[in-house]
Amino acid sequence: MRLFVLLLCPLITIGQKECNGFVLDKITGNKVPYATVGLTKENRGVSANAEGAFSINASFPQVDCLRVSSVGYVTQVLPVASWVNGKVVELRQETALLKEVVVVPNQKKQIYSLNKFSRCSWNSYHIGLETIYQLAQRFEAPREGMQLVELELCKDPSETVFRLRIYDIDSLSQSPFQDRADSVIEVRSSESHMRIDLEKYHVFIPGKSFFVAIEWLFVPLNEEQEKVKRSGRTTVHVFYKPFLRWVTNRNLKKGKVWRLNFNGKWSEIPRSNQDYNFQITTKLRS
Question: Beta partners for 93?
Fold first, then answer.
């Protein structure tokens, strides 16, 4: 069974404007691969390629803005109306300090596993037609100040590339907040049951609540097409990997799973008759 998240393309295309350009590091001049470029009004977006190049069509050029973001950089919001094709967007590296975590020495180290599973489910969740680009699942650590050392997840067994994000929790909205990893955690694999070593990233969780997020990259490697025939007409739907595996859990608390839209806003995934628990296991060390 597959759970599809679809967004129909806007019907109004009058005045559509093509925006293409490049994303570079403001200081070094290096290319910023796979930066996210979204339209804030249409809530639609693309990923820059490995060379930092991107192209996107805006249906409402007079009122829409391009939101350009990447891990470790300050987000830029630029009006579509004044966009010049071939423009270079220079992103400045983020200098915000992470919340301090106190590590107590000389304690016996223990490993705690959260949300363990024995085998991968056949149920899959993925996104289509560039609707959202991150999905985050909430975890509760047994104590504060723990280190995230390993992550396991189940996905489809085809080759895909994606990024992992680790977030604090916002005390007011209960949504994902500050990114705990100060470097890119990029994964490319064809394995279905994956184990990802996070030791070198030194990710410490200041409180008990945190989120693990999957960031989709809209690149050719991740694209999959499916032909659907209805009323004698064939429609091609485009979806993007990874296809995350999930199991039903009716006891999940409210605010467990959130999604990030291209306008930069997090929203809780609506609940239906079932609750979807994604097969993501986190291992923490005290």
Answer: 73
